[in-house]
UniProtKB/TrEMBL annotation:
<dbReference type="GO" id="GO:0016562">
    <property type="term" value="P:protein import into peroxisome matrix, receptor recycling"/>
</dbReference>
<keyword id="KW-0472">Membrane</keyword>
<dbReference type="GO" id="GO:0008320">
    <property type="term" value="F:protein transmembrane transporter activity"/>
</dbReference>
<keyword id="KW-0812">Transmembrane</keyword>
<keyword id="KW-0833">Ubl conjugation pathway</keyword>
<keyword id="KW-0862">Zinc</keyword>
<dbReference type="GO" id="GO:1990429">
    <property type="term" value="C:peroxisomal importomer complex"/>
</dbReference>
<dbReference type="GO" id="GO:0006513">
    <property type="term" value="P:protein monoubiquitination"/>
</dbReference>
<protein>
    <recommendedName>
        <fullName>RING-type domain-containing protein</fullName>
    </recommendedName>
</protein>
<keyword id="KW-0479">Metal-binding</keyword>
<keyword id="KW-0653">Protein transport</keyword>
<comment type="similarity">
    <text>Belongs to the pex2/pex10/pex12 family.</text>
</comment>
<dbReference type="GO" id="GO:0061630">
    <property type="term" value="F:ubiquitin protein ligase activity"/>
</dbReference>
<keyword id="KW-0813">Transport</keyword>
<keyword id="KW-0863">Zinc-finger</keyword>
<dbReference type="InterPro" id="IPR025654">
    <property type="entry name" value="PEX2/10"/>
</dbReference>
<dbReference type="GO" id="GO:0000209">
    <property type="term" value="P:protein polyubiquitination"/>
</dbReference>
Length: 264
C-alpha cells in the first residue's frame, strides 16, 4: 500500500477542516466561539465526519471522504474511527496533560512515524499500515478500498500524471538536443545556416530589397542566435552581439538605431 496515499489522507483531512472552519465560526455567535473553542472544533469535526464518512459493510471497513479519494479505508467501525480521528483530539485537549507526558507521547509518535516510513525489508507489513500512534494503539489498520469509483479515480489520476511527466521529459530532451546542436562551437548547423543565408542574400541582391530575409549577423557574421531586429532596416542581430556592442548606428545601412525588438 502506498505510504504517500496514507499521508495525503491525513493532510487532506486537515485541509477539509480549515475550509469549513472560517465559515462555521462566522455563523456562531462571537461569545460562543471565544468561550468554547474546543467544543466548537469538536462540533465542526463531528459534522464533517458524519456527513463525509461511509461504511463498507461487506469488508467491515470505513472510509472518510479524503481516504476514499486516495483509495484507502480503515478496518474498523464508523464509531471506532470517530474515536480516533475526532474524539481523541478533544479528550487530549481537555485533559490538560503535563508537558512531560505530551513530550513522551510526541517521541513515541515520532518513532511510530519512522517505522511507518521504514523501507527495510524486515519491516512488517503492519508498520506500513499504521501512520499514527493512535492507529497503532487502537489497532486500526489502513486497507485498500474496494470502491470502484475510488479505484478508477486514483488510477486515472496516476495515469494522467505519468503522461504529463512523460511529455515534460520529452520536451526537455528536445530542448537539450537543440541547445547542443545550435550552441556548440563544433556544431555544423550554424556554419551551414550561415552559408545558406549568405548565398540567399547574394542571390536576392539582384531582385532588390533583402530585408525580408534573415541574413547573418553583421557583427559576428554568423546565423543570428536569439535574433533581435533593428528599426532602421529590419536586419537581424544576435542578442549577445547587439547588447554587448552598444551600437548607435546600424552596420548594415549606417542609419541611427532608435529601437530594437525581438524577432520572434
Amino acid at each position: 500500500m502506498s505510504r504517500v496515499a496514507q499521508l495525503d489522507t491525513e493532510f487532506l483531512d486537515g485541509q477539509l477542516y480549515s475550509i469549513f472552519e472560517k465559515k462555521f465560526n462566522s455563523i456562531l455567535p462571537q461569545f460562543i466561539s471565544s468561550s468554547f473553542p474546543n467544543e466548537c472544533d469538536l462540533l465542526l469535526n463531528t459534522l464533517i465526519y458524519h456527513f463525509s464518512t461511509k461504511i463498507n459493510s461487506n469488508i467491515n471497513s470505513t472510509a472518510t471522504y479524503n481516504s476514499s479519494l486516495a483509495g484507502i479505508s480503515y478496518s474498523c467501525s464508523k464509531r471506532y474511527l470517530f474515536l480516533i480521528n475526532v474524539l481523541s483530539n478533544y479528550i487530549i485537549k481537555k485533559l490538560k496533560l503535563p508537558n512531560i507526558t505530551i513530550k513522551f507521547y510526541s517521541i513515541l509518535d515520532l518513532i511510530n512515524f519512522l517505522l511507518f516510513l521504514s523501507p527495510i525489508r524486515h519491516s512488517t507489513e503492519s508498520n506500513s499500515n499504521l501512520p499514527t500512534l493512535k492507529h497503532r494503539l487502537l489497532k486500526v489498520h489502513s486497507t485498500l478500498s474496494n470502491y470502484s469509483d475510488s479505484s478508477s479515480f486514483i488510477t486515472n489520476s496516476r495515469y494522467a500524471t505519468q503522461q504529463f511527466n512523460n511529455k515534460q521529459l520529452l520536451w526537455s530532451a528536445i530542448l537539450e538536443l537543440l541547445n547542443t546542436l545550435l550552441l556548440n562551437d563544433n556544431s555544423f548547423i550554424i556554419p551551414w545556416l550561415a552559408n545558406y543565408t549568405s548565398t540567399v542574400q547574394d542571390n536576392s541582391k539582384i531582385g532588390g530589397d533583402s530585408s525580408s530575409l534573415v541574413p547573418s549577423c553583421p557583427i559576428c557574421h554568423a546565423f543570428p542566435i536569439n535574433p533581435y531586429e533593428v528599426d532602421c532596416c529590419t536586419i537581424k542581430y544576435c542578442f549577445v552581439c547587439i547588447h554587448t556592442s552598444r551600437l548607435t548606428n546600424c552596420r548594415s545601412c549606417n542609419s541611427r538605431i532608435h529601437n530594437i525588438k525581438p524577432y520572434y
